[in-house]
Each structure stands twice: as structure tokens, then as C-alpha cells.
């Protein structure tokens, strides 16, 4: 009877979560209408972005952390590390990057799963492969690229994006930078030992309480950074100076690709949101490879993502992550400009 009550409670919570998650756009629209704000102007678009993205990321973080907390009671961190570390690290990077293709998250939305992977004891380099691939090469981006530019561009983008995600994750893994995780994350990893593995079979209520405890501990630590990060991105989202950027993104000068990456980092958007900007830049004469580098930096290296990650990673690791990915993105831009 006790198990039934807990399971019923989880079912009700899950239905409520689904109801909230699938009506975020409606909530945002109603809020703007109630406040008399129109999306037709820059402020309205930025405000809509904020009120839609903040609850979306927090809802994703809550459910992922809860599920990973429950998973910990079945599978020990040591077993997870053994599966994805050592000689299998390369395979783990490929698996994580491939998983990113089927998860249509922006960079900030991918952070909850990134934390969940760390929480489960997945090696650091493997988690970074997912964090890079999820926003950069999800199916939404590929479908839109296919429709706008054809299968050759979509396939080349996917291949290069996967290469960046896999190789960047492997490089970060080889650097053994786990000591640059924030202390609370390191303690979280050290404490993830399954009671079942130790010979004690946990009851359903205890497993659920473990998941709730993880939500309380982790979400309580990072929610403010999520609000600040998305707030920064929303503020920039409505003010993209397309004419100025197009003038910099020409094929004839070597520095156009690095400049495009630097311009893209402060801007926050998902693949669907940035592709219309990409199309507008190309229409103004910008080079395809340079614009692709800009797009990748927007969706894989956004400043709001860095703000959120600051609560999880120390500055040294954030710098290495940004540097390795930026170099990979610039190589993609140069290759696109060379072959197309």
C-alpha cells in the first residue's frame, strides 16, 4: 500500500510536469498578452524568450536530476565509470555525441543532462561530447539545414559537428581535469554508490526519496545561474545586428571565421531560432563556412551556457572547454569555405 501511494504521487507529478512543459508557449503568449507586450518589437521578442526558456530549462533539470537520482539506487557510479572509461572512452564519446543528435536541446537546456551524466559517474570527456553535440547537431538543425540548403550541406554539417563533439570530448578527457569540477559536484560523484550493490535492496519509497533529495540539492544550487544565464541570452536574442555581421563574414579574409565565432558566443539561441538569421546573413553575401561557424558558436558556446556551467565547473575547465570547441568550430568554418 505504501509503495502504491508513492507511485501514485509520482504519476500525478509526471502528468503535471507534462502539462506544464507542453504548455510553456501558451503560458508565455498569455503572459505577454496580459502585460500588453508585443513580440513584433525587439523587447517583446526578448521578453518572450526569457519567460519561455527559464521554466523549460528548470523543468528539464528537475526531471533529469530526479531520474538520475533514482538510477543511482540501481547502478553504482563505479560500474558506470567502468563501462565508459579507459579503453572504451572513445566509444563513449561517440555514443554521447550520437545521443546529442536526437535530443533537440539548446545549449542551456543540455546542461541538465550534462549534470545528470556527471551525477551518474560518466567520465568528464564523454559528458562534454554530449554537451557539445546536443545543441549543435540535433535533428531540428539538420532538418532545417536540409530544407534550406540541401542534403550535402546538412550531411557535411552533421559530420563536422560530430567530429568536433567527439574529438573535443576526447581531448578534454585526456587532460584529466576532473579536479576542476566544483567541489559539490565532486562530492556528488563520490557519494553515488548504489545500496543494491552493497547488498541492501532499497524500497520504492526510498528510491523516490533519493531522487527528490538530488533535486533539492542540485536544483537548489544552480537555479539562480540558470535564470541569470537565460536572462542574458534573452537580452541579446532580440538585438542581432545582421547588416554589421554580414559585412564581417566574407570569404575573402582569413579572420572572418574567428571573428564570426567571437560574435556568436554572446548570442543565445537554439538551432531553429538562429537559422533564420543564418539565411538572412547568406542573403546579404556572407560566406557559407563563416556563417556555419557563427551558427555553431551561437548554439554550442553561448555566454549564458558559460554562466550556468560556472556553478558546475571551475573557470580553468570552462576555458579549456571553450577553447577546444572554438578551435574545432573554426576548422569547420574553414573547411566549409574551402569545399563549398
Keywords summarizing the entry:
340 residues, globular, mainly alpha
Q: Can you describe what's shown?
A:
The protein is mainly α and 340 residues long. It has one domain (2-339). 77% of the residues lie in helices and 0% in strands. It is built from 17 helices and no strands. 42% of the residues are buried. The model is unreliable at 193-199 (pLDDT under 50).
List the helices and strands and how they pair.
Elements: H1 2-21, H2 24-35, H3 42-72, H4 77-84, H5 89-101, H6 107-119, H7 124-136, H8 139-149, H9 151-174, H10 183-190, H11 204-237, H12 242-248, H13 256-264, H14 271-283, H15 288-300, H16 303-309, H17 315-339
Helix pairs in contact: 2-3, 3-6, 3-11, 5-7, 5-9, 6-7, 7-9, 7-15, 8-9, 8-14, 9-17, 11-16, 12-14, 13-15, 14-15, 15-17
Poorly predicted runs = 193-199
Shape: globular
Order of helices and strands: HHHHHHHHHHHHHHHHH
Give the total of beta strands.
0
Strand residues, percent: under 5%
Total count of domains? 1
Distance separating the two termini: 65 Å
- Largest sheet composition: none
Structural class, by secondary structure, is mainly alpha
The percent range for helix content is: over 70%
**Estimated radius of gyration:** 21 Å
Brief synopsis:
The protein is an all-alpha fold and 340 residues long.
Amino acid at each position: 500500500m505504501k509503495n502504491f501511494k508513492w507511485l501514485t504521487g509520482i504519476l500525478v507529478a509526471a502528468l503535471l510536469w507534462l502539462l506544464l512543459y507542453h504548455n510553456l508557449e501558451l503560458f508565455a503568449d498569455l503572459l505577454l498578452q496580459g502585460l500588453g507586450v508585443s513580440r513584433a518589437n525587439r523587447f517583446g521578442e526578448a521578453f518572450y524568450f526569457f519567460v519561455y526558456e527559464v521554466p523549460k530549462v528548470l523543468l528539464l533539470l528537475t526531471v533529469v536530476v530526479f531520474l538520475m537520482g533514482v538510477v543511482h539506487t540501481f547502478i553504482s557510479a563505479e560500474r558506470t565509470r567502468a563501462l565508459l572509461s579507459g579503453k572504451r572512452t572513445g566509444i563513449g564519446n561517440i555514443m554521447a555525441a550520437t545521443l546529442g543528435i536526437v535530443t533537440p536541446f539548446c545549449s542551456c537546456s543540455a546542461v541538465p543532462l550534462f549534470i545528470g551524466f556527471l551525477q551518474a559517474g560518466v567520465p568528464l570527456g564523454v559528458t562534454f561530447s554530449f554537451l557539445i553535440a546536443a545543441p549543435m547537431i540535433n535533428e531540428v538543425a539538420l532538418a532545417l539545414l536540409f530544407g534550406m540548403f540541401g542534403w550535402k550541406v546538412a550531411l557535411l554539417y552533421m559530420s563536422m559537428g560530430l567530429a568536433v563533439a567527439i574529438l573535443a570530448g576526447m581531448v578534454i578527457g585526456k587532460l584529466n581535469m576532473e579536479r576542476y569540477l566544483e567541489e559539490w559536484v565532486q562530492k556528488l560523484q563520490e557519494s553515488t554508490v548504489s545500496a543494491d550493490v552493497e547488498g541492501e535492496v532499497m524500497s520504492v519509497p526510498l528510491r523516490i526519496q533519493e531522487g527528490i533529495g538530488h533535486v533539492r540539492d542540485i536544483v537548489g544550487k544552480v537555479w539562480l545561474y540558470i535564470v541569470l544565464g537565460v536572462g542574458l541570452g534573452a537580452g541579446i536574442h532580440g538585438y542581432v545586428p545582421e547588416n554589421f555581421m554580414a559585412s564581417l563574414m566574407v570569404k575573402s579574409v582569413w579572420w572572418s571565421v574567428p571573428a564570426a565565432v567571437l560574435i556568436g558566443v554572446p548570442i543565445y539561441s537554439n538551432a531553429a531560432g538562429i537559422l533564420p538569421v543564418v539565411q538572412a546573413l547568406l542573403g546579404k553575401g556572407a560566406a557559407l563556412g563563416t556563417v556555419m561557424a557563427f551558427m555553431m558558436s551561437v548554439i554550442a558556446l553561448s555566454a549564458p551556457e558559460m554562466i550556468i556551467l560556472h556553478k558546475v565547473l571551475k573557470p580553468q575547465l570552462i576555458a579549456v572547454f571553450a577553447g577546444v570547441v572554438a578551435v574545432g568550430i573554426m576548422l569547420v568554418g574553414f573547411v566549409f569555405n574551402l569545399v563549398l
